[in-house]
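Worked problem 6 (solution included).
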Amino acid sequence: MTIEGLGPTPRGPHFTSPSVPASPGSWAGPPTGAPGVEAPVPSGPEPEPAGPARRWPLATAGGLLVLALAAGAGAGGVAGYVTGRDDAPAAAPASGAVPADLVAAAARALPGVVSVQAGNGSGSGFAFDDRGHIVTNNHVVAAGGPITVIGADGRRLTATLVGTDPSNDIAVLRVEGSANLPALPLADPRATRVGEPVLAVGSPLGLSGTVTAGIISAVDRPVRLGGTARRTAVQTDASINPGNSGGPLINARGEVIGVNTAIATLEGGGSIGIGFAVPIARARQVATDLINRG
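Solution. The predicted structure is:
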């Protein structure tokens, strides 16, 4: 199983086969010069596959490979991450009902979600405040080049890079405040619960304004984001794919609970329902620090 980040997707993808990446670009691994990819030590012997042999691409025997799911034109993935051993307990469910009106949640979120074009690739982002700041993933903009964001209404806005935090895979952009992008509300991280419904919003394969639904599969999942430091991530089964990187994961109230960052794939690529997002508490702190310094 491969776990890939959600970075830039090639512009103008060819929809030839769901199992074959569009050209140009490849989602199978990082390009030459990208950060190294590590793998965790297996917790036990790897079971033999049942039935016809099915090979799972691994960084090393028994390991899970984590890559930035990014496919800019002429390049494969960008940054690399690795999950830790699956020994962290899931959070206990809290009491209280969770609203299930995902239609209303999508309507609230979509106006504040943007497509991000950086260099030859693209990803997603969302309005963080009313001063024109936009949060996305570091690996969406790491390749450099001019940055343009495209709003839900089709407006193309030139963005400047305020700052990046590669270890947390967070970057902050800025457009003119007159763009009036509506900031998305941020969730109380203490209220995020296993099993609650969520939406992933962004531009997978360049398809802007795409919304997919799922649930929170786990919280505090150990993941290494672009370096050796282990971080925790929100795990979800909402379908997210190349180009979703940097887009918000929102709850049924339309509040951002995380920044979509990585997914797990089988050989051949594509979402298999295991995705990871930077928790909003950490993303908010990192973004605020970058804004204050920038």
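Discussion: The mean pLDDT is 75.
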